[in-house]
Amino acid sequence: MAIPFTTHKYPAAPVLSLRLSSPGEPASASEYRALIDTGSDFTLVPLRYLLRINAPETRSAYVRGLFSRRQLTTLYLVDIHLEIGILSGYEVIGVDETADGFDEEEIILGRNVLNRLYLFINGPQAETHLLERPPRRL
């Protein structure tokens, strides 16, 4: 299934649809569009989404953005529900809506999740395909 790029960014950007849950729980009713960011080491989720599903805290960690100093943050454990299945037990960074440069509605999928997926990003057609297995050839 083709997932159109979001046009809320300039230039348009690849996204995936997902739902979240605490580990082992059913997916939340809320579906989110998550920005695919291969430059981000970790996945970022608005803190209020994590509190809504009662995601457990796992540990503290230091994070740093491209132009920011490192800061202490809390990691949470979630299951990520995609159209092709569930990615169980992933740590994500809970981001407060007051964080500089963070859109309070946006989930950013970083490499800790993306490296587990087969994605085909079709830039000329402005769409993303989430694959169940690697393609035989392009």
Model description:
The chain has helices spanning 47-52, 111-114, and strands at 2-4, 15-21, 32-36, 44-46, 57-63, 71-82, 85-95, 107-109, 118-122, 127-131. The chain has 138 residues and is mostly beta strands. Strands 2, 3, 4, 5, 6, 7 and 8 form a seven-stranded mixed β-sheet that branches. The chain is globular and about 40 Å long. The chain starts with a strand and ends in a 7-residue tail after the last strand. The model has no long low-confidence stretch (mean pLDDT 92).
Describe what is shown at a glance.
With 138 residues, this protein is mainly beta.
SSE blueprint and pairings:
Elements: E1 2-4, E2 15-21, E3 32-36, E4 44-46, H1 47-52, E5 57-63, E6 71-82, E7 85-95, E8 107-109, H2 111-114, E9 118-122, E10 127-131
Parallel strand pairs: 3-8, 4-7
Antiparallel strand pairs: 1-10, 2-3, 2-6, 5-6, 6-7, 9-10
Q: Profile the largest sheet.
A: 7 strands, mixed
Gap from first CA to last CA: 16 Å
Strand content: 35-45%
Q: Helix-strand pattern, N to C?
A: EEEEHEEEEHEE
| Structural Rg | 15 Å
Number of beta-strand segments: 10
Number of helices: 2
- Mean of pLDDT: 92
Low-pLDDT sequence parts: none
Shape: globular
By secondary-structure content and strand pairing, the structural class works out as mainly beta
Task: Specify the helix fraction band.
Answer: under 10%
